[in-house]
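User: structure tokens for this one?
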Amino acid sequence: MAMSKQRGFPRGEGPWPWLTAGSVAISLLMLGALLLLLAVRGLGHFWPAPVTLVELQDGSRFAGMAVKEAPLPGGGGEERLYHTANRDLEGSPWTWVEVATIEAERHPDDLVVLERQRWGAFHGRLMALRGGDDGVEGQRKVGREDALVEGEAAWQSLVARLAELEALRNELARLRDDTILPLASRLADGENATLAAELARAEARLRELQMTMESGEVLLESVDGTRLWQPIEGIVRAQRPNAMSVPDKLAAWGQGVWRFLAEGPRAANSAGGVWPAIFGTVLMVLLMSVLVAPFGVLAAIYLNEVAHQGRMTRLVRIAVRNLAGVPSIVYGVFGLGVFVYGIGGSLDEWFFADTLPSPTFGTGGLLWASLTLALLTLPVVIVATEEGLARIPDHQREGALALGATRLEMLTRVVLPMATPAMLTGMILAVARAAGEVAPLMLVGVAKLAPQVPVDGNFPFLHLERKFMHLGYHIYDTAFHGSDVQAALPLAYATALLLVLVILGLNLTAIFLRHHLRSRHGRLPRH
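Assistant:
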């Protein structure tokens, strides 16, 4: 019998395995491309880029770092964007230049890059340094000729002085956070002569340190010849990137990344680090997990193990699944009305009436943000836990009951340990969603700038009423509400990469714990 000609796809699974494998590969490539973009744009910001001395055909010149190129409107060439800094001298730290008008580009080793607390960065040359203040504040004048240090000696003196200033700033921060603020908080609760004397001594030491910092200034010169005196205490860091070797740049890059992780923000979040935002994000997610886990697990146990499986139970399940699709801003409005104004306002009236009208719990804070996100992620935990409970075979329950266990013992010693991996799956999904939410947090407690973390040495140590910083909101504020978006954009990329890594770290912790419990209690059969 002649075989008929085969039409269409061959027998078997056809092209579907290839399509699914291709979809997974494309998804992984897109994820890798996203992480690579964040890493290059974010981590590359901390690399000491060379400073170019640009001379134009009209005779003018400037010093800056090349950022990007773009075609001219209408074609006919390209223009290049330079970060020229010197906002106090030129008005704008950015300059667009037609590439065709550039006469020459050089990289002199004596060009310095100063990071200042005011006016941003400075690009130019260091001409001289003097170490004292010969007049009152606001009336600085040049002293004796031998008081000036010039040339290479001025650069070495500036580096040493900046190292001393960094140590003084750290001591000031420790004195303010660990001594003065706790003493002032304790004095607010009641008058105490001993505490008042300690606070006076600490404040005297603070003024002494501040006076020590207010000494010395440097003479700077831009490449067009403009000079200015800059107080040394207003300089955060100084570099000569054109004279740095590759090991020096690697060391500077590592120090920049560490400062980004360990310091607080400066200059309206366009400079400095994100440590308060890291701490606030992790603390909020952990507190949210502690709040949502028991309620989600208990609700799933009731729906699957206790409640009568009728029409009402099915309606409740449908409602829970629909709640998972409600926009997050709706939960934020609910948290603002119920948690902040409702419960928080009542707590202020009952326990903090002496501080009214200044609210204590009647305003956004860490507790209300965690409760709002717990409510937001509650349906995810319920659904994941209930699916894990439904996969446990009935003979496991029946066997425990046949051996004489009560229903409570069967649930706590047989069912729940086997369903723990499913519970952790729900927590993983909850953490992944809660850590990236921004919209509800804007209503219930997140702040643009909250340099003090909600944990300190004062009772009750964890201050749930305080506002906090969040990495997601920090990205939003830096990228869209900064005074210089172009300068803050690399920090937004770095913060986005950090947020992804924080979520990945939290999820990996739960995944490893789930794997351990799954290997301990055995895998559940698949339906």
